[in-house]
């Protein structure tokens, strides 16, 4: 009797487990990334180039 009940419960659970539906949304998913690009890289590169020119004036004649 217990074996029969366990089997029936397993069958019922597997039958109900297949009833899940997943539906894609109507509208596309929008990901808004607020990215702020700073100009620090350019300033650092300018400073590095300026230091290189000042430290090696023979390489960059005026």
From TrEMBL:
InterPro entries: YnbE
Any one Pfam family match given in the protein's UniProt record, by short name: Lipoprotein_19
Protein name: YnbE-like lipoprotein
Organism: Sphingobium xenophagum
